[in-house]
Amino acid sequence: MKKLFVIMLTALALGMSQQATAQKFVLIDMEYILKNIPAYERASEQLNQVSRKWQAEVEALQTEAQNLYKNYQNEAVFLSAEQKTAREEAIVAKEKEAADLKKKYFGPEGELFKKRESLMAPIQEEIYNAVKDICEAKGYSLVLDRASDAGIIFASPKIDISNEVLAKLGYGN
User: Fold this and answer.
1) Which tops the pLDDT comparison, 173 or 165?
2) How far is CA 119 from its chain centroid?
3) Distances (CA, A) of 42 to 46, 48, 66, 157
4) pLDDT-derived band of residue 6, with 50, 70 and 90 as boundaries?
5) Is 156 buried (19+), middle (13-18) or exposed (0-12) by CB count in 10 A?
């Protein structure tokens, strides 16, 4: 009875180990893939231009607030209490305007986030679908991104399918 139990346990363990080794793992390098997609480069440049423009607007308001404050400091001794209060309120309002504009453009749900989402989501979706198609066709169980996972110390170039993904997207080398 004991022998039968050991034989069954061994057979079960062998079956599980064969099933575990049957899984296929591959890598992609998302940075490499994105650098080789012209639409991504164009979208990145467009985002950079918009970001620079909006940053200049925010900085202009911040500079105005700083100038108002410097003028207030220089003239404070000559101002009445009401004038001081009015100037202080104007400075606070200008600073709030700059902060609100910065939040509007660069906040977590700001215009830059929405713009990035609208430009990048279709590209990312296209890459995801290409990877998914390749995995389904070749039976890969897991895909890791070499570019974003610092936990990968070494990986054989043989399991990197980045060029295959680019070819599937029509950007083959």
Assistant:
1) 165
2) 12
3) 6, 10, 36, 29
4) very low
5) exposed
| Degrees to nearest 5, angle at CA 55 with 49 and 61 | 145
Tokens of 166: 């680019």
d(C-alpha 143, C-alpha 146), whole Å: 9
Q: pLDDT at residue 160 above 80?
A: yes
Rounded-to-integer distance, Cα 52 and Cα 70, Å: 26
Q: Output the pLDDT for position 69.
A: 94
Contacts of residue 16, defined as CB under 8 A and 6 or more positions apart, other chains included, come to none
pLDDT tens for residues 43-66? 999 999 999 999 999 999 999 999
Going from the C-alpha of 61 to that of each of 4, 72, 104, 153, the distances in angstroms are 82, 16, 14, 47
* Gap between the Cα atoms of 139 and 128, Å rounded: 16
Residues in the chain: 173
